[in-house]
Amino acid sequence: MGIDIKNSDQVKIMAEGGKKLARIKKELEAFVKPGMNALDVENLVTPLIEKVGARPSFKMVPNYFWSTCININDGIVHGIPHKKLVFRQGDIVSIDLGIFYKGYHTDTSVSFLLGNDPKKQNFLKVGEEALDKAIEVTRIGNKIGDISKIIEKTLAQSGFNPIRDLVGHGVGRKLHERPFIPCFVSEGGDENVEIREGFVLAIEVMYCLGKPNLIVDSDRWTIRTKDGKISGLFEDTVAVTKKGPEILTN
């Protein structure tokens, strides 16, 4: 399957959706407090998405019935927002959400700390920095592999490891499209694809403090680090334009 190039009208629609999604994400970050649980967040998000005239992207994924994916600490992605997942002081909370607006998906994720642990704050700061640098190289004429390379380099400089079994991706009419964007330098995928105007990419930084080996919980969705060490997740939807990368979800 080829890569879907968006025209300016399509990018404009996705930018509208991205702004709505960004506002919801910011509201969530301010909302989450110790003592709350993941279902509290889910119950806030769904009405917010509907209020802006959109649909939850994740509910369009077969056999997934929630608007959000929520994880803490060693949980990296696809966590089901259960009531039993209670947030505590010192937790790293990762929230992933997407909306389907006027026929197009946008996708974003954020990790944040409940508390003031300097080591965990630095861990998250590096992830944010890796995403910023990845977005900066998302320019016409560069390669998809350049995005992966700068993510891996930024993480490695601080001794952190990229997750190797999960990838960022194109996004548009479908939630997951080509090209696929690993967080590390790889071969045999889309690494040599030249970035073109009209690409819209969900660039994801997924990483961990320990080894990047993963396990899947008995719920068949939640993915976490095998060694139980902390992980982080940062993602924005980015459009490639003649002027450079345009972040649609902030």
From TrEMBL:
Binds 2 divalent metal cations per subunit. Has a high-affinity and a low affinity metal-binding site. The true nature of the physiological cofactor is under debate. The enzyme is active with cobalt, zinc, manganese or divalent iron ions. Most likely, methionine aminopeptidases function as mononuclear Fe(2+)-metalloproteases under physiological conditions, and the catalytically relevant metal-binding site has been assigned to the histidine-containing high-affinity site. It catalyses: Release of N-terminal amino acids, preferentially methionine, from peptides and arylamides. InterPro entries: Creatinase/aminopeptidase-like (IPR036005), Pept_M24 (IPR000994), Pept_M24_MAP (IPR001714), Pept_M24A_MAP1 (IPR002467). Residues 14-242 form the Peptidase M24 domain. SUPFAM superfamilies: Creatinase/aminopeptidase. A divalent metal cation 1 binds at D96, D107, E235. Its EC number is 3.4.11.18. A divalent metal cation 2 binds at D107, H169, E204, E235. It is an enzyme of class 3 (hydrolase). Substrate binds at H78, H176. Keywords: Aminopeptidase, Hydrolase, Metal-binding, Protease. GO terms for biological process: proteolysis. Pfam families: Peptidase_M24. Its cofactor is Co(2+); Zn(2+); Mn(2+); Fe(2+). GO terms for molecular function: initiator methionyl aminopeptidase activity; metal ion binding; metalloaminopeptidase activity. One of its GO terms (cellular component) is cytosol. Removes the N-terminal methionine from nascent proteins. The N-terminal methionine is often cleaved when the second residue in the primary sequence is small and uncharged (Met-Ala-, Cys, Gly, Pro, Ser, Thr, or Val). Requires deformylation of the N(alpha)-formylated initiator methionine before it can be hydrolyzed. Monomer. Belongs to the peptidase M24A family. Methionine aminopeptidase type 1 subfamily. PANTHER family: METHIONINE AMINOPEPTIDASE (PTHR43330:SF27). This is Methionine aminopeptidase. It comes from Candidatus Woesebacteria bacterium RIFCSPHIGHO2_01_FULL_39_28.
